[in-house]
Write a structure and sequence with these properties.
Elements (H helix, E strand, L loop, with lengths): L1 H13 L3 E10 L12 E4 L1 H6 L6 E3 L20 E8 L2 E8 L4 E3 L11
Antiparallel strand pairs: 1-2, 1-4, 3-6, 4-5
């Protein structure tokens, strides 16, 4: 998988395409009252980059746990997919519910950076 990811990244870099910088899947804990509960997430950067075709990533409404390279880190709990990606040299970020369809890149995911 690593070798095909390297080739995909090289192809995407050459055309200023879609590069997945970080991808996490699982249950994210943000509420401070739940501090004792650890976030249960897995790094899915490599498997997602493998799914990029022609500078696009399209995921269906099915659970992401069924995707190649994924597994369910917290069975029976609500999960999300958090992505940090670069498209045309600009950073983007999105959080998607487990069974929500996702198409990237999208202008609405853009992270505004101070210049």
């Amino acid at each position: 998988m690593q070798e095909s990811v390297r080739r995909i990244i090289e192809a995407e870099e050459s055309k200023m395409g879609l590069i997945i910088l970080n991808a996490w899947y699982g249950k994210f804990v943000s509420d401070t009252s739940q501090k004792q509960e650890k976030a249960k997430v897995i790094d899915v950067t490599v498997p997602l980059q493998c799914l990029v075709k022609d500078s696009k990533l399209i995921l269906t409404e099915a659970s992401k746990a069924g995707l190649p390279g994924f597994y369910d880190p917290c069975v029976g709990e609500e999960k999300s997919l958090k992505l940090l990606y670069q498209f045309r040299g600009v950073m983007h970020q999105v959080i998607s519910a487990d069974t929500e369809a996702l198409r990237i890149p999208k202008q609405s995911h853009r992270i505004e950076t101070e210049s």
